[in-house]
Amino acid sequence: MEKMMMIATSLNELRDARRLQEGTIGFVPTMGYLHEGHISLARRAREECDHVVASIFVNPTQFGANEDLSNYPRDLKHDLTLLEAAGVDLVWTPTPELMYPPGFATWVEVEGLTGPLEGAARPGHFRGVTTIVTKLFNAVQPHKAYFGQKDAQQAAVIRRMTRDLDFPIEIVVCPTLREADGLAMSSRNSYLSPEQRTAATILFRALTTAKSAYERGERNAGSLRKVMQEVVASEPLAQLQYVSVADYDSLEELETLTGKTLLSMAVFMGKTRLIDNFVLE
Ligand code: AMP
Q1: I need a labelling partner for 233 at 20 to 30 A (CA). Which of 9, 108, 167, 248 fits?
Q2: Of 70, 71, 39, the residue nearest 56 (C-alpha)
Q3: Active site residue 38
Q4: pLDDT tens digits, one per residue of 48-67
């Protein structure tokens, strides 16, 4: 008979459930409203580890004051069904009160890498991410933790934090899953109107156009930024926030491409903010 998936809410429930698990633990942190991208992380963890733990927590401290915290989509029942089908053993669904009790005053901050791109567009975002991921890591104590390339800078920041703070955890970064038309899967895609949803392929098209230019030999970063800007500008429903052609490791903007490069962008479709990226090897 299949083992039942366990669900923990309090820290004590989580710890009790974790104590019953022997062998390697793979951990998949999420904010819920799960799609195939999240589930691909759980499947990878299932393949590589003896036990798979997932968390669902919409972390308030990584949202800016004018962002979508109160509207963030939720469907716990559906999430649990998907996680169980993916072979997850234990799901932790803590509450904001549990994670941030009155008087909470301790933050984890990664310098440098968090400055540009998402860090510049969303001040305080990464401080919230690194603090909650530290708390989740400390509670779950996984051997491996799974993150998506979709959030490229987040993956880089978590990797750096894990190294700097000596967490004995291997960070595994998994490929971005996309819809058939190229749109990167995201919980936030549910905000899009049908017209915006169609137009939202503009991120993928801009990245693809820049990649083609690169493959034809273009090595000037400014030219590649211009290519992406022009493609996004051709879509009236899209408003570009930033495009970047940066060194993959340092995330510093490049003049000329020499090594591994991150093409990334953030685009507003109405009020909905979408991000996407490609890696050029
Ligand atoms: P979120 O629930 O948005 O915090 O995402 C939880 C994890 O799933 C993060 O590590 C994301 O990078 C990852 N993720 C989100 N979307 C995708 C996707 N389309 N493909 C792969 N991983 C994803």
Answers
A1: 248
A2: 39
A3: yes
A4: 999 999 999 999 999 999 99
Which protein residue has the closest C-alpha to ligand 1 atom 17? 37
DSSP annotation of 88 reads -
First to last CA, the chain: 45
- Beta bridge mates, 238: 269
Tell me the C-alpha distance between 50 and 3, whole Å: 13
Which residue in 38, 51, 78, 125 is the catalytic one?
A: 38
Cα–Cα separations (whole angstroms), residue 116 to 57, 100, 113, 184, 279 = 25, 27, 7, 22, 17
Cβ-based neighbours of 175, under 8 Å, separated by 6 or more: 40, 148, 149
For residue 201, give every residue at least 6 positions away whose Cβ sits within 8 Å of its Cβ, in sequence order, or none.
181, 182, 183
CA distance 235 to 218: 24
Q: What is the mean pLDDT of the chain?
A: 98
Mean pLDDT of all residues in 107-135: 98
Give burial (CB, 10 Å; 0-12/13-18/19+) of 129.
buried
User: Hey, which bits of the chain come out as E strands?
Assistant: 6-8, 25-30, 51-56, 90-92, 144-148, 170-174, 238-247, 261-269, 272-280
The confidence band for 3, taking pLDDT boundaries of 50, 70 and 90, is confident
Q: Residue 63: which H helix or E strand, with range?
A: none
Q: CB under 8 Å to 192, separation ≥6 — which residues?
A: 200, 269, 270, 272
Report the C-alpha gap between 83 and 47 in whole angstroms: 14
pTM equals: 0.98
CA of 220 to the centre of ligand 1 (A): 30
Which residue is it, tokens 């693809």?
A: 208
CA 147 to ligand 1 centroid distance, Å: 7
